[in-house]
Each structure stands twice: as structure tokens, then as C-alpha cells.
Amino acid sequence: MFDGILMYVIGGAVIGILARFFKPGADPVGWIMTIVLGAAGAAIGGYVAGMLQVSNRALVWAIAIVAAIVLLFLWEAVRGKKARPA
């Protein structure tokens, strides 16, 4: 059980960092929220990939990263703050 949670945290961190790297503009998101949004993106991406019957692991990761990017945009919209220019 602990291994599964740890892997979601590590995977969420990696996916969250990659999503922040690919998303344009500065993100006023801390590391904890990056991990949370990355893990949520991984879960959503895995669900979508399962629905689309995608079995290619690289494509599943790409879908998870896209889902995390969408979550980053939604998080900014909900927070109502504009990203500060870099």
C-alpha cells in the first residue's frame, strides 16, 4: 500500500514538473500543489487512456501530462490570479 502511494507522489511530482515546463507563462503554484496536480493529472490521464484503450506507456504518460496541464490552467482560473510575467 505504501509503495503505491509513494509511486503516485513520485509520478505526480514528475508529471507536475513536466506540465509546468510545457505550460507557457509563470505558474504561481508551489511544490506541494505541483505534486497534487501532477498526481491528479496522472489519475485522470490513466483513466482517459483506459477509456481509449491506449496501451503504449509513453502515450499514457503524454496523456497524463496533458491532463496535468489542463489542471494547471483550471487551477489558475479557479484561483483568479494571473501569472506574473517572468
Automatic annotation (TrEMBL):
Keywords: Cell membrane, Membrane, Transmembrane, Transmembrane helix. It is a multi-pass membrane protein. Its main location: membrane. It is found in: Cell membrane. InterPro entries: Transgly_assoc. The chain crosses the membrane at residues 6-22, 29-52, 58-78. It comes from the Bacteria. Belongs to the UPF0410 family. This is GlsB/YeaQ/YmgE family stress response membrane protein.
